[in-house]
Amino acid sequence: MKEIKKIAAAENFSVISVGKLSELSEYVIELSPEVKIPGKVFGGATLQATGSEFSFQMFQPNTETGFLHTHKNHEELYFFLAGKGEFQVDGQVFPVEEGSIVRVASNGKRSVRNNRTASLVMLCVQYRGNTFTAEDATDGVILDEPVKW
User: Fold this and answer.
1) For the segment 12-59, what is each residue's pLDDT rounded down to a tens digit?
2) For residue 118, what are the CA distances in angstroms to 3, 57, 131?
């Protein structure tokens, strides 16, 4: 089974690598002895992220999540990086493909499937909903110092 590589870390940053997206199928997440999810890797804890979680997932042809799920507090953003498939929220099914982005509120009943012959690759970002404010939109600070490489 493939493992995340830790690249670098210091007080204000950490860097990891999950490897090539084409190799995501080498990861397996075990939620319980009965529930194993092939092609999925979570990275937030390894990266020491403090405000969100994220995962990459590769769906092989003609595979699916296999279950509906919701969250207690977290919204999710799904970024589709390769392939084509279908997404379902609250019984509504719609197509997704490379470049598609789906936001699902915490209570949305969601699932993904790859009903095609090529792999479907996605990045999912999970974060606490209803926390972003107008003040947050201007949180960035451009520093008056040169960039030195």
Assistant:
1) 999 999 999 999 999 999 988 988 899 999 999 999 999 999 999 999
2) 24, 14, 37
In whole angstroms, what is the distance from residue 9 CA to residue 12 CA? Answer: 8
Whole-angstrom CA distances from 2 to 38, 41, 46, 51, 85 are 11, 9, 14, 25, 25
Fold of 5-130: Jelly Rolls (2.60.120)
- The ranges assigned to domains in the chain are 5-130
The answer to whether residues 118 and 80 touch, using CB atoms and an 8 Å cutoff, is no
E strand segments, the chain = 5-10, 13-17, 28-30, 36-38, 40-42, 52-59, 63-64, 74-82, 84-89, 92-97, 101-104, 110-114, 120-128
